[in-house]
Amino acid sequence: MNAENIRMKIRTGEHSGPTSGISGDKVQANLAILPKEYAFDFLLFALRNSKPVPIIEVLEAGEFTSRYAQNSDIRTDVPLYNIYKKGKLTNTVSDIKDEWRDDFVTFLIGCSFTFEQAILDAGINIKHIDEGRNVAMYKTNIETVPAGIFSGETVVSMRPFKKELIDKVINITNDFPNMHGGPVHVGNPQEIGIENIDSPDYGDSIAIAEDEVPVFWACGVTPQNAVLKARPEILISHAPGHMFITDINNEEYKN
């Protein structure tokens, strides 16, 4: 199935769940939609924090078709959207046409699902995909660099791997610096402020076996965390794990 067909299935509600593993070699993107008055601050925040917030594309105010996704509609082609008003989550919906405004600026942000495909292509299993679950994501004590109204801690995604595979996984993900790149931490979660690995802030809990080590990557949910502190009038984002699928091949972002 090509990316446009997947977007159509999402648009019609035929696919409403997480998008990890469903798009093959096509780049998936995190989503952040803000009124134009906040757009410069957000872009500066992204530039200063390119590991958790790597920008793929910025759509001008009122635009809702990505140049990297044929016949796409940002308002309908994400399985689930979170709507935040003044820093509080007010609704989770499958369509944002009723919320759309001509002053909305859309940011598409690189996603770790790109390097996940490279890991799979190397013959390494990824636990949450095998289990049909959403990736586990956590707030950390790793501070971002503030910009304008935006600041806060980095959110990370976690995948457990057997110890002998970790160096290989790190090398694979280092090849995708514009899709979060290599991990920010390996091992003890408490060292980055995660007190309970069994209770993620977003996504699903993934069990870690005795012969596995948790590996943590910067995550595109970080802007949502920053919004909780900044409290802008409105932000619309993807629900964690529910991405926008582009027509770009993952290899185009490989170093």
TrEMBL record:
Entry-linked InterPro entries: D-Glu_cyclase (IPR009906), Putative_hydro-lyase (IPR038021), UPF0317 (IPR016938)
Keywords annotated in UniProt: Lyase
EC number(s) given by UniProt: 4.2.1.-
Enzyme class: lyase
Domain of life from the UniProt record: Bacteria
Alphabetical list of Gene3D superfamilies matching this protein: PSTPO5379-like (3.40.1640.10), PSTPO5379-like domain (3.30.2040.10)
Pfam (any one): D-Glu_cyclase
GO molecular function list: lyase activity
PANTHER family for this protein: D-GLUTAMATE CYCLASE, MITOCHONDRIAL
Family: Belongs to the D-glutamate cyclase family.
HAMAP family registered for this protein in UniProt: Hydro_lyase
Protein name as catalogued: Putative hydro-lyase DFR63_1610
